[in-house]
Write a structure and sequence with these properties.
The protein contains 17 helices and 32 strands. By secondary structure, it is α+β, with helices and mostly antiparallel strands. Strands 5-8-3-2-14-18-16 form a 7-stranded mixed β-sheet. Strands 17-20-21-22-24-23 form a 6-stranded mixed β-sheet, sandwiched between helices.
Length: 739
Amino acid sequence: MKNVLVLISLLVGTAHAQQWKGKFEQLDQLLPTPNSYRTASGSPGPAYWQQRADYIIDVEINDETQVLSGRETVTYFNHSPETLTYLWMQLDQNINARENSLSKTRSSVIRDSIATRFVANALNLHDYTGGYTIGKVADATGKPLPYVINNTMMRIDLPQPLKPGEQVSFSVEWKYNINDMMKVSGRSGMEYFPDDGNYIYFIAQWFPRMCVFDDYEGWQNKQFLGAGEFALAFGNYKVRITVPSDHIVGATGWLQNPKEVLTKEQLERFERARKTFDKPVFIVTEEEARKKEKERSKKKATWEFHAENVRDFAFASSRKFIWDAMAVKNGNNTPLAQSLYPKEGNPLWAQESTLAIKNTLDVYSARTIDYPYPTAYSVNWVGGGMEYPMVSFNGGRPAKDGTISERTRVRMVYIIVHEVGHNYFPMIINSDERQSTWMDEGLNSFLEKETMRERYPHLNYNENTPKAIVNFMKGDKSVMRPVMAASDTQGASFGNNGYSKPAAALTVLRETVMGPELFDKAFKEYAQRWAFKHPKPADFFRTMEDASGVDLDWFWRGWFYTTDHVDVTLDEVRWFRLKAEATDPERKTKKAQQGELTAGGKGTSKPTDFSNGPQELTVLNTPEDLYREFRNRIDDTAVRQKLAGKNLYELKFKNTGGLVTPLVIEWTYKDGSKEIERIPAEIWRTNENEVTKVFIKEREVTNIVIDPNLETADVNTTDNVFPKRQSESKFDQFKKGAN
């Protein structure tokens, strides 16, 4: 082999001139200016305020006509520094009204051989009249208040201005036809069972609710278009629910009158469940539920629930319900985990539901705050899931013959974990879902993944990981939106941008960028700072940096503000050893002076393997002019002795995807051992497109793989390996896992 002359400065590496593209630019100009309400550290400021709305509600379901009717008294507390002359309420059920804004703005196409169900839903062909009928809006004395309805919003004009520190009470009466979810889908409704002629009612987004008024944007007045769920104020609730007397009701809050609505035997079982921590207690058995399906009571019963410091209220009611429950030790609290499900959910639900609630509360509380509420329900319905304070509606049922596939079990468990987990995000850490879906769905999906990893390693769960997001990340950028786009503008990106991408990003942040210890402390700090408050994206970004001491602006910018993806190419590998005849370092060949050779000894072509051995390296004595005014001198011989016998590997990386990322390098040595080396993303800070770095190794390397465990969401792993000839066999298995 011929010698190559390389100055020591080239070994260390030099910055390449390039046009600055701002991937490491700070987010200052993108984030709101800190103020007395929200600080630069991400904390609520000394002048932070938020409004409050208390509700007293009476509601009744007519099991013959499927009409819900209610009346409410709302007490609204103005904690803001502004005087209000009108209030805004959300009328979410108006999304089902004729000529609603959703149907007008929803795109549709015609294609041949389409199922009637899809045609009927898309073109509103069902004989269903949805939306609110508002009966009366009045002040505390009963005097009518002027109001105007704007699709899913209602403005109420106040008789006199509501000054800071004051409160006002008013009442609203309403009714609406409950939608059959088979025909008119949504986030609530009813399910009909033709075999026994009964219904399950999933009642949510059912009453006129106060919009949020905050320091960030005043009134939150985005219309409800289905995707962006809601933003709501905290308050206290007293709700009386009237249903047939043979129904079982589960709701937000704690049941106040169990002796009035439960049989003596049910009450005894209920009290026993509150003290049982090892397994669920059946309050209503399947046998008892089957019997009630056939005996329809004509009497009524009123269940009363109270809830404190919640942002919403939901409930479920049916005579079909099997009911089991168990207590959960959670810090100093003992919330009751409760499941309601029809016989169609068994045996799966009896096996998994209540245990999944417990596992969720355990893991989420460890990562955020102790669960503060007295109960958490899991209610079985058809489809995916939907969440409300203390109540979640969750899909998953066995086949009609009772068999349970692995996919059904896995999906049912992670849906329950996800929806129960929403008690934390956004029901307690109360973000605005109309604006930022990812702040509740993304953070929650991340903790869903963590719960499944910790408590269900035996289940084949592969969601919300960097591997799982690869196909989306390498998709069509022309239709892709950044995570930070508003909920209802996400289009085809909604599911991935709301759920999977931010969950994968947080996984990268925890496992690869920050490390679990720093991440977990910062994440917990965010949850504790903003529990029962209204955080915004900047509050999350700033808190994660403030509590960890890690500058993450490059990370938020790339993962949340752009549609870039991770694609690192291991473009070139060169292998060097110090020239054996190091006694005369000044002796060199002309070709060595010009640096024409490469590791494989094949001229200027890039090596594809290590077969030609290392390239010889000459390290010169330091020229006098490099010392400038220093009087001290480097021991050149000692430096060369430290390099003697070592293997030097020069790796060139290209950022093909645009999203800067840490480098995870797996070295395989000649003796068969492996080593993982991690390089922070800041290696790209002076050149965002291409970087070169030299590594010193005692042992000879036989294989190099970038991102060996698929932890950075690299979309093309076939160019991450050296020698190149191993790329297909090495990464076929990885590609299968990533896809």
